[in-house]
């Protein structure tokens, strides 16, 4: 791979905006070779740090640390699995840089948005009746964000791994999700045992 100039946050934010407002395989392909795994790590790391700082308001230092580590670990396990499964199962021709970078362009903003939604729910959790309404709206927003994330991931895996059939992309995403759940559970039990 050729050496690339470092990507600025403003460039990544602009690319995120483009992907989120114009979601298509072509839009993802326009940006996939502009960044690297290191750029993805920086962008998702910044989002995870913001999320962890917001999480610290309700969860203290443990909430901060668990939110930060979980966001980063899940992102890299998931994108690594998308890359490996796409390549091994369907002969995908992308690389991990492209997969991680394209996924970071929608994952980072959604991590921050999810943390803000959680913060609003926590802030109103002590207000009777209003807490129920805010919780319900938070649930609906969270489900919508999940649907959006699945849609963007579906497009990103087609672009990043050059998989052109919807069934191949869907299979890769489901298997990567299951593998990420398994790894997250294992890491969670290890961390739980350390702090117990």
Short recap of the structure:
This protein has 196 residues and is mainly alpha-helical.
Describe this structure as you would to a colleague.
- The chain has 196 residues and is an all-alpha fold.
- It has one domain.
- It has six helices and no strands.
- Helix 5 crosses helix 6.
- It is globular.
- It starts with 8 loop residues before the first helix and ends with a helix.
- The relative contact order is 0.14.
Terminal Cα separation, in Å? 44 Å
Strand content: under 5%
Count of DSSP helices?
A: 6
Low-confidence stretches: none
- The overall pLDDT, averaged over residues, is 87
Radius of gyration: 17 Å
**Secondary-structure-derived class:** mainly alpha
Q: What's the number of extended β-strand segments? A: 0
Major sheet attributes: none
Shape: globular
Number of domains: 1
| Element order: H for helix, E for strand | HHHHHH
* Helical residue percent band: over 70%
Brief descriptors of the model:
196 residues, 6 helices, mainly alpha, single chain
């Amino acid at each position: 791979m050729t050496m690339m100039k470092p990507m600025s946050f403003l460039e990544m934010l602009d690319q995120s905006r483009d992907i989120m407002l114009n979601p298509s395989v072509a839009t993802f392909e326009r940006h996939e070779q502009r960044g690297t795994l290191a750029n993805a790590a920086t962008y998702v790391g910044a989002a995870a740090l913001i999320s962890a700082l917001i999480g610290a308001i309700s969860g203290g230092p443990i909430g901060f640390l668990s939110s930060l580590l979980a966001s980063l670990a899940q992102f890299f396990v998931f994108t690594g699995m998308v890359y490996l499964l796409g390549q091994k199962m369907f002969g995908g021709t992308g690389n991990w840089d492209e997969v991680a970078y394209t996924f970071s362009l929608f994952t980072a903003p959604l991590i921050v948005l999810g943390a803000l939604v959680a913060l609003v729910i926590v802030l109103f959790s002590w207000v009777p009746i209003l807490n129920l309404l805010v919780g319900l709206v938070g649930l609906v927003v969270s489900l919508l964000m999940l649907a959006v994330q699945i849609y963007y991931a579906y497009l990103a895996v087609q672009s990043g791994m050059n998989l052109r059939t919807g069934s191949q992309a869907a299979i890769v995403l489901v298997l990567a999700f299951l593998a990420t759940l398994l790894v997250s559970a294992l890491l969670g039990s290890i961390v739980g045992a350390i702090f117990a």
